[in-house]
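Possible regression after last week's pipeline update?

I re-ran a chain I had predicted before the update to compare outputs. Posting the input and the new output here so someone can diff against the archived version. Not blocking, just want to make sure nothing changed silently.
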Amino acid sequence: MKPILLMDSAIQRTILGRLKTGNFAEKNALRVARNAGMRLERFLLVEQPQLGRKEARRIVEGRKGVIIGGSGLVHPSNDGEILGFAFSKGMVTSGMVNASVLRVIKECCSQGVPLLGICYGHQMLGRFAGEKIAELPEYEFGFNSIKLTEKGKGDALFSGLPEEIQVPEYHSLGLVSSKSLEVLASNELCIQAMKLPGYGVYGVQFHPDFHWDFDGKGTGTLQHQYKVEKMWKVIGKRADIEPADKIHAYGLSNIPLLNFMRSCEGQD
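New output (post-update):
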């Protein structure tokens, strides 16, 4: 079978106005997989942003699993439409990418291929299930506490984890309620993990793909992103973004990703 597909949906505009593909989270996921002796095949969606039904079917077919990573493309909506904005005339729009991701989710469900949506992928799973994405009252950036529900405590995705854990987060949108999805974890702001009933399809709002030390220089950490992206302009100056023991904190938060990949590889 084909290796697990890591779908990188991140699109960013540089200072010069050019499109930049991918982000550090997907690179971190590759590192986590390598450390566990597993392989992910990365697909940069921005390079082929408009996937039709046949293309989506072809990408998913024969996969052990699919992971949809983070992005900045989802927007709050009070209806079922896919909202999008053009980065520049004649170039990719977020609506094109969103539509492609929804087709991939549909194909995973149709073909019985396990899926894990992370952050943006989690939100798109919610949209696929007909749920609303809301702008949260505050930005969740840094390690925050989430609590497993009764269903979450018994789910293989969280095997080996306590009922309440600290996880890295980086988002301002989320699902605050759900009528069609099984809620596996939450906090006071939003749903933190969920599952589509009857399918091996999951979504987590937090980032189990973040890694404490991607390249030996700390560029895979939230603290690094906080400095590079000048996040204090959004959330204010903070000293508690990461726990003191980064290795343990990030390692613990990697467990849901590892559990998912191992289940795809038949190692559970």
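Follow-up from reviewer: compared with the archived run. The chain has one domain: 4-264. Marking as no regression found.
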